[in-house]
Every structure is written in C-alpha cells, then in structure tokens.
Amino acid sequence: MGHNHQHHGHGHGSDVQDEKLLGRAFLLIAGFMLVEVIGGVMANSLTLLADAGHMFLDATALGFSWYSLRLSRRSGDHNLSYGYHRYQVLASLFNGVTLLGLVAWILVEAFGRLLSPEGMLPIPALIVATAGFLVNILAYRWLHRAQDTATVRSAALHVLGDLLGSAAAIIAALTVYLTGWLYADPLLAVVIAAILGRGAWGVFKQSAHILLEGVPDGIDLKEIKSTLTARVAGVQEVHHVHAWALTAEKPMVTLHATVEEDSDLGNVMERLKTVLQEDFGIDHSTIQVEHGPCPDD
Q1: pLDDT in tens, 134-172
Q2: Is 6 within a domain?
Q3: DSSP letters along 221-277, please?
C-alpha cells in the first residue's frame, strides 16, 4: 500500500510534564505583562502597550491550556465517558479565536498609526522590549520541550506571536532613536499580523474539525476499507466506517465487518484491530462483526 501513518503516543508522564511547562510559561508571561504595561505608559510607546495586550491574551491562553491539561488527566465518568481530553481541543479553539481577534486588532492599530504616527521615548521602550524578547525566548523554549500536541502548539503560537511583537518593538525603538522615522512600527505590525493570522487559522480550523467529529488528518476511510478487506482473512466487506478524534493525537474508529460463516470471530476481530493500529495508528476501535446482511441497513 505504501502508506505509513505516524502515531505519537502521549502518556500520563508527558501530560504532567506539559502541564508543568505550561504553568511555568504562564507565570513568566503574566508577570512580565505588568512590566510591559508600566514601561509602555512611561515611554508612551503604543508598540509596548500593544505587546502588553498581546501578553495578556497569551497569559489567558496559556492559563487555559494549562487547566485543560489538568482536566484531561481525569478518567471517564458517568458524565464524560471518554474522559476530559476534549478540554484540550476547547483550549486550542479558544486560543485560535483569540489569536484571530488579536490579528484584527493589530491591523486596526497599524492602520491608525500609519494615518497618525505618535512619538515615543525610544530608550526605555528599547530596554523593556529587549527584556520582553528574552522572556519570550525562555517561555518558547520551555514549550518547545513539551510534547507536540495541539494544545501546546496553540500555546506556543501565542508566545511566538509575542516574540515577534517584542522584536517589532525593538526595531521600532531603534528606528525612532536612530532616524526619527515613526512608520516602522505599523509596517512591521502588518507583517506580524500576516504571520500570526496564518497560524491562528490553522489552529482554529483543526480544533473546529475535531469538535465537528471530522475524519482525522492522515486517515482515509476508503483506504481503511480496502486495507482491512485485503489483509484480514475471512473479511468479505467493511462498511459503516466512521472516524473521529478525541484530540489530534487520539484518533478513533467504529466499523462493521461482514465475515465468512466459518471464520473464527475472535481471530478476525484481533487481526482487524492489529491492522488498524499498525497501519493507521488507531489504537481505539469499536468493531461489529456480522454474518450475512447488516442489521443496521
């Protein structure tokens, strides 16, 4: 067949590690946000104040992502039989929406500054922006050490946006200090908005797709049908195939398999599950085996 679907395990230990790294990044970003607000007011720097607003959104998103990971470690109960994994997806959706809102706000601010640029004190702005850049590098490195999940990716995107915002504030402060040209800031802001917008749309789209029970990326239902029929002895037909995901890393499948009358059903079931896991990275499947016509048709 030539397909090789990657499946990334994400166990309890790595969830705890992710939670710690997200919590640490949240405290760092939230703490420095206050420094940026004070620095922005003192230097009359709209760039710093905008970046402080960005940091506020980041802190909120990081805090929500951290809390969602805590919730997702709970086992299933009578209210949520699959457990609390979907809180990670909700956190990612929230992060994507806030990022898109932030992009719109940056574009509006940039347009305003292009029409009516304002002066600022470049040296204090440069000092605070440089400190912010270093803080964001540290937070981004922490998140980079975490598992590659949608929750962590969306949180890391927020921090990356902040990193770009700090870089823009540094360049804007240097430009004002060296040349007095005030248009560098809004022009750089538009570039940042374009980069952030692309990432934000990806996070929003993936999260919405999961919540709508869409077929996970990399899984082809027709390929599942043909592979199972070809590789599992005794299987005549595979139908009613449905695939969705609890999170981007936890795909799930339900299907019906029509098998030959004299087949060992336990053997067929075991083989079907093995092929799903080895070929498609699906380790949770619900399979109904049938002799003759499907009772659901």
Answers
A1: 999 998 888 877 766 667 777 788 788 888 888 888 988
A2: no
A3: HHHHHHHHHHHSTTEEEEEEEEEEESSTT-EEEEEEEEE-TTS-HHHHHHHHHHHHH
